Amino acid sequence: MSTIQRIVAPLNRDWRFGGAYVPGSEQPAFDDAAFDRVTLPHANVRLPWHGFDESAFQFESIYRRQITLPETLRGRRVFVQFDGIMTATRTFLNGEAIGSYDGGYLPSLFELTEHLRWGESNTLAAVVDSRELPHIPPFGGRIDYLTFGGIYREARLLVVPTVSISNAFVKPVAVLDPGQRRVDVQVTLDAGSDFAARSRAVGVRLLDPDGRQVGTASAPLTVAAAGRAEVRLTVAPSPDVRLWDLDAPQLYTAAVTLAEDGQPIDEYRTRLGFREARFTPDGFFLNGRRIKLRGLNRHQTYPYVGGAMPARVQRRDAVILKRELKLNIVRTSHYPQSTAFLDACDELGLLVLEEIPGWQHIGDDEWQQLACRDVREMIERDWNHPSIVLWGVRINESPDNHAFYEQTNRIAHQLDDSRQTGGVRNRYGSERLEDVFTFNEFLDPSSDIRPPNHPHYLVTEFGGHMYPTKPWDGVERVQQHVLWHARMHAQLASHDGYAGGIGWCAFDYNTHADFGSGDRVCYHGVSDIFRIGKPAAALYRSQCDPAEEIVLEPTFPWAMGDCAAGGPGLGMILSNVERLKLYVGDRLVDEVLPDRGDLGYLPHAPFFTQALQASWGQRLQDLRIEGYIGERLVATRRFAARATDAHLLVEPDDRVLHADGSDATRVVFRVVDADGNRRPFSTVAVVLEVDGPGESIGDRLLSLSGGVGAVWIRSTEQAGTIAVTATTEHLGSQSVTIRTTPVEPEPY
Ligand code: GAL
Fold this sequence. Notes:
By secondary structure, this protein is mainly beta. 11% of the residues lie in helices and 36% in strands. The mean pLDDT is 96.
């Protein structure tokens, strides 16, 4: 039988949410019978996807949950860990204050042991303040995004021995030299005040994905005082460990154990990857190979619930970024994001620039100390993710502040000497205390961007508010949006001095009244807020190797469109093939190669044709585009001139969910023509019905914008089959089913 005393139990179900906080509602005697029963992640209010008032989520609220721990566990320490509560929390057990935390993006940990009544029901209460409190980063000035409210990430109960492992930094060193390669392990232990003198030892085993040991080390340890202590070990891994890379993101597990009198009593597991990531004056190198970084910024905002989406949905964003947009890097603008998202980046081989919360404004000393704490807690949470290659330790686009940024850089370097720091700025001449010059280049890219005369030069934003674009915009605007991204990446690709670029941004996001388009949305994404690609998404997608996927997407609708210049505007087609043949009716009208001008630096430059404009006179004949690699026909796309709204497609991302009350998947609605092409001006209304053990996070009456929209279907705690039926006035009804599989109840 295992002697390990650690228990990690989910604490997501059976919460009671009382809405607006009433003084005294944190007390056990308070009657919460009228509260809603909710599951985490939870948003304190459900909102429409746009057009709402951002004061709607800014209030204080109350969450309560009963917890019963059996007598048999008495003697261990008990903690509750919240992965993210927006924005400030005061926590109570049985009416006694057990701690508070200011900040919405990093975990908070509260010890319950002292006030816990073993074998009885205990009332855990969290008073959550979701207002934009000016003493907490990112608040105090204006910010161009909404933060939403509630216990919006998962929670868990940790039951551990008196002396336990609280963290382990497992740091690969000299990874490119098999003779020197090692793993430096720094284990943090935490001793309760009643610890006893015992013979103790810490051990670490490195395991490959099949559980085979590829390295081990151990060291004795003396606990001399209550509180935290550190132990360092070095492991020499077996010489055949595989590197973590973009195409083969090999992960290992480190199992760290604490033994007392020869018995293992605690085990802490974390994953790691062997890779070397360096920004140099000659670009970015991963495992010694130069990689031109091509990325987008991600806000964690989802329609209807802000950040409150479960692990599966968070992971899906990483899949979209890596597999649909073919990016190699993402910036977690402007705060630490869900660990489920970062885990997926590790598994998929998607690099990450992670940064502390903040936007342009620097507050007073107290505020700056919270930002310094954020640097520390972000790094201590995420240091084992191989995907993270850069710590962002400056408040996004803030003015210089020598003392503050000296401190944030010092903290980062002291905690983690294996990664460089960046500090995202929009002032070219600002003081650079970071290792990498990370710069938001908000210049019209038709003018040349600034030369890479700062070493370690990474563009961290461009485009954005300078060219918001909606999926249903006219041809000219959509094409300029594509060009905006194409030109910038081409310029960055033209010189090794640029490490690459991270555009603004991946997905449209909710914002304040004084930003964006006035409907509380910044339409800055290459995808909409539902994560459905606009034409600019196809530019990114088309940059992949054709062996991965053949992409062939025109940037114009062939069925008219509203281009002043006529029909297809610039005649721009996005593809990674070598040659296109264009037929109008059955007549070959053009044969084109990718652009060899300014855009030629892209791995796969867009194609341009004038022939379609010329054939505009013979309109109402169908268009066929053939894509060739060498002499081989690899793709054919057809576009009907007389296209109509022909079908509604209903596409769930997943067909099976866990019946835990929080698991969810997106269901996308698309109006297409008979050839399957999107109808960009469709506004079809969809009536949604959900039958069975599921609910919709989203509108029951949904008007598609640009022929697309989505809701998320969330499981209940009952297993079964959820039927989602979308009914339209003229395109009939479509149904899909999603199965949910049973999940154990939460133990406590
Ligand atoms: C930047 C800012 C982003 C976003 C963007 C819009 O200045 O860093 O958060 O507001 O502008 O283009």
